[in-house]
Amino acid sequence: MNIWGMTQEELQTVLTPFRIPSFRAKQILHAMYQEHRTDFNEMTNLPKGLRAQLSETLAIERPSVLALRKSADGKTAKFLFEFSDGATVESVLMRQPYGNSICVSTQDGCNMGCAFCASTLHGLSRNLTRGEILAEAYAIDEFLQEQGEKIDTCVLIGTGEPLMNYENVVGFLRLMHEKETFGMSYRSFTLSTSGIVPGILRLAEEGLPISLSISLHAPSQELREKIMPIARKYALSDVIAAAKFYAEKTGRRVTYEYILIDGVNDRLEEARELVRLVSGQLANVNLIPLNPVVESGLKRPSQESIQAFSAYLSKHHIPVTVRKEMGTDINAACGQLRNAYREAR
Ligand code: SF4
């Protein structure tokens, strides 16, 4: 049995047949999460006999790093992980001016079908467990520790739709918050969703003050349906109502992510509609110039179009940012490294 990703309570239950004092569970968690031990024999805080006993029935399994790409400026690193069943996911580290931000995946693949996304090309293989998501963060943390750094913020925006893996994602957030793992404040997390309305409403009631970002990508129902099939299930008006509810409930500003695609959603007509849609909300818009995926045939708009779109929003008092490109030398669109590996295999 793999104990990686367990809470103290769960480990205590697993250890019942060993008939050992309950403080041992705490010691094992400390060795596993604080000292980064993956071999019971290296847990010198445990008696020798117990180490051997634990090794016979339990394991601490974490994914292997299949690829690590570092940008020339040292600010961005992309990791490709493989789990024991062959599931592969990408994670990214970005050294931002405000700290080290990591981006983790929550599913092996995705079945949301967004037109611009490489992660959905082969569909969904499976959900990641909370321990597997935690393992992504740990591997990046170890990479940072070697350079005397640490993780400051975490975004759940990699491969997968986090709200379609709700229990594991919330379990991951709670684990990251525990002091025996990272002790990270909930305010350091952002969850990005394609607009799973019941999940947003549930998250609003969860009592976790994390930031929410919504992949909007189109200001009208009709256009959104064309680029995001999930829009047929959850209407734009319901997504906006859920976002407002989330902001009211948590007091956290919602970010609307808007991928700018040449000739699809980047005209002033769409900027006008977007202003109408977002005005008056506790929200801001993050414009993301498309990182093209060859298979989709979609293109990135010109710099002039991006600037014109952003300026229109600003002029109409919508807080707007344009995502800064980082690590362009390694920055294939999200999911392409994983796809290349899968195809080669
Ligand atoms: S953008 Fe996100 S939700 Fe959409 S297909 Fe890609 S991974 Fe899935």
Word description of this protein:
With 345 residues, the protein is of the alpha/beta class. Helices cover 35% and strands 19% of the residues. The protein is built from eleven helices and twelve strands. The strands form two sheets. The protein has a ten-stranded mixed β-sheet with strand order 1-2-3-4-7-8-9-10-11-12, with helices on both faces. A hairpin with a 5-residue loop joins strand 1 and strand 2. Helix 4 runs parallel beside helix 5 and helix 9 packs parallel to helix 10 (303-315). It is elongated. The protein starts with 7 loop residues before the first helix and ends with a helix. The model has no long low-confidence stretch (mean pLDDT 94). It binds iron/sulfur cluster. Iron/sulfur cluster is lined by residues 110, 112-114, 117, 119-120, 159-161, 194. Iron/sulfur cluster (SF4) is lined by residues 110, 112-114, 117, 119-120, 159-161, 194.
